[in-house]
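Researcher: Going back to the complex we discussed earlier. I've cleaned up the inputs and rechecked each line, so this should be the final set. Can you rerun the prediction on the complete assembly and write out the structure?
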Amino acid sequence: MNFQRLWESFLELLRHLGEQLAQLWHAFQDGLVNTFNLAQDASIFLILVVPLLTAIICGLSGKKRVMEIASMGGVSLTAFFGILLVRSVLAFTPNILPPARFGGFLYADALSAYLVLIICLIGLLATFYAVGYMGHEHSAGLFSDGKLREFYFLLNLFIFTMLLAAVANNLGVLWVAIEATTLASAFLVGFYDREESVEAAWKYLIIGSVGITFALFGTVLVYFSALSAFKSCGVASTLNWRDLVERDCAIYLDPHILKLAFVFILIGYGTKAGLAPMHTWLPDAHSQAPTPISALLSGVLINAAMYGILRFHHLLGISPVGPDFSSTLLLVFGLLSLAIATPFILVQQDYKRLLAYSSIEHMGIIATGIGLGSPLAIFGSLLHTLNHALAKALIFMSAGNLLLKFKTKEIALVKGAMKIIPATGALLLLGTLAITGVPPFNLFVSEFLILSAGFAGQQFWVAGLILLFLVIAFAGFFYHVSHMAFGSPKDPLAFGEANSSSFFPLTVLLAFVLLLGFYIPGPLHELLQQAVKVVRPW
Amino acid sequence: MLSYSLDPKLLNQLIDLFAAFILVSSFLVLAIKRLYVHVRLYATQSFFLALVAFLVAAFGGEPHIFIAAALTFIFKVMLIPFLFRRIINRLNVQQEAQLTLNVPASLIVAAGLVLGADYLTRTILETNQTFELSRNVLTVSLSVVLMGLFTMVTRKKALTQVIGFLTIENGLFLAGIAITAGMPMIVELGVLFDVLVAVFIMGVLLYRINETFDTINVEKLTKLKG
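Model: Rerun complete. Updated structure for the full complex:
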């Protein structure tokens, strides 16, 4: 009797406990969901705060271990919020502009979210790579503790400025952010304080800053035109992107001034995007910077500048100027970049410069694709942006391992990489296949899309020229890389990798490069399609 | 209230006069070789720029430009020239700037640039937009931008290149005031901040160039080619 009652009360207790637990669990779940929603809501803000805080922590601490952990943690958190931002942008129904946030200061549509995604992804992998790479060079005594602190501080600041460019609502603030990317990365380019690197940093700073003042002049002209346009519209004037495109005031913008403005914008941001003939700083800066920074400059920074051009391309498209003017200019500058970069790829003697010229070539392809103007071509171009960033990061990081081992950037002095560092050698070869657009790698897909859009749009000359330059670049690349990968090393070097911790980011990159060659995940496809609508709303 | 207490015609004439001084100081940078004078000319130019901004703020009914005018005065007339003098003293820079194009030829090219700027602004004017200020100011600003670029291309000293960069920025600032009565405040502040940081970084890089190359002659920066 007693026993049974005891048993029952025990069961009662259990049930009670269970209910309590379930309630707690629900509350926890609700809390989690709430926190998640809150984080998603604030993600546009958090992606800026986290890298800035990380930079401050690195700048204040200066201890190697702390800075490494803070940077890796910070950039992972930023990437997480970046993905939340993409989610929140995708949650909006297409054809409705997402609201501006934080007093109209920040704004993210599909195009910004896409750029944020690229910055976060490459930023994450480059930071993980940097920990091993810079750690190796630091312990080899190439630079002091103070320099390491400078590196991590500026690295995080650099990521912050690029993210600010992506989510700034005001076109003036966009300019400020892009100029800030130059300022944050100038010392990173000149990091090693050698004659070459100081020279590269000076060129980068001067050409970058002066070039971009043209973009400021263009922005002033757009504002000037917006002043009277908004007067006709009956509202206060602004440089806020959302206000510029939301109301139908763009039709009052003056076509003469806008054309002049776009020329200035294209020269200005084109300088930073590495479009020829304003590209002269790029090979110097990309080859002299520490390898993780090269990957960021090549994979991300030039895309951020291209993003600025795309915004104004959009604005011209919906104004009385129409899309043809800016499309033609982009097409011409794109093809010119291809034509100028390709010969330099053929005759290059320095493998980091080789990769830098390849970046100019790919920016040329992207600009040409946008210039072609059909939705398919723009889709291909935007996809190419991501693909190029991934493949270029992969090959730059493999080249960085090569540099750690051979201690030279001269192609002629590197031989037999497959023999002494087989893993890096193999990655270098795979990266070369990817960057030259061989199937089944991802760049093949995007280049194929751009080319087929060109042929479909009856622009045979353009598509034919792209194809020609691609083939030449392919030949040049393989000539150089096979020289480095095969054969026997001249000096007997010890077998073994110099930077084995780099294989985590390298493997991830290789996986992405292969995956995107076969299949574009649903959300990415959706994001891309919405981004195409941002670039080409007409 | 200060607004409209000045005859608008007189105001425009005053602004035109100061704009002319700005243009002349850009010419003088090309005509004179001494680095100290370049710094002083930059300060003078910035002073007239601040005056123009002040006039627009006080009598043009755009009070937010007061802040821009004040900041221009503090940073460009006082702080940046002060930093430059320090750099010149510390680096023991040789005073004469070396030229790739001699003074008379430079001045002729500069005059051509002013004509080109005038032509460009004419095409803008044909669009029947209402200007906040007279067209002359826009012409001056574009000329100053082009002459700054020209200074950077033809003068070999790294320090003169920085002066050229700052001159370009002054021209843009003038354009902002002349045709739009000032950009939105946040942009104005952001641009000023960027310029300050740029000058700071350029200064540090100047020291590094001096250390690694034993000169700040940019002609010696020729390691990177192809």
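Model: Worth noting: The two ends of chain B are 62 Å apart (CA to CA).
Researcher: Good, that matches what I expected from the previous run.
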